[in-house]
Design brief:
The structure is a single chain. With 142 residues, the chain is α/β, with parallel strands linked by helices. It has five helices and eight strands. α4 crosses α5. It is elongated.
Amino acid sequence: MFSAEEAAEDESDDPIILVRPETSPEDVAGMAVSVGVLTGIGGLVSHAAVVARGWGIPAVVGAAALRIEESGATAENGERIGPGDVVTIDGTTGEVWLGEILGAAADPALEEAVVARSLPELARLTDWASSTARASTERVPG
């Protein structure tokens, strides 16, 4: 949603990601009902980052690859995000996807790639555990 006022007044049960050029104290009511925040301008101590961190919700701030306006957002490749479009954000990596990313249930290869890039130690540990499990089931008794 591109308006904090609309987010605050929204009566649907759909999760809301508030998308703003940047946030200010006037946006707090919309941020309070959101499951995440995405801004085009900002950084570690920007309003959106500080409030989101305090509330424990993910935020991607300073998404320079997006031109965010009141009516929507445009990616560098020309892809447009409009009101009502579903977006997924990763507050840890700063990544933004158009559409819903559900993790392993939706696309195991995507989740594996995100884990490998964001948490390489976990990826190595998972690979090791998988290979150890395969090796123990391939042993021939005797």
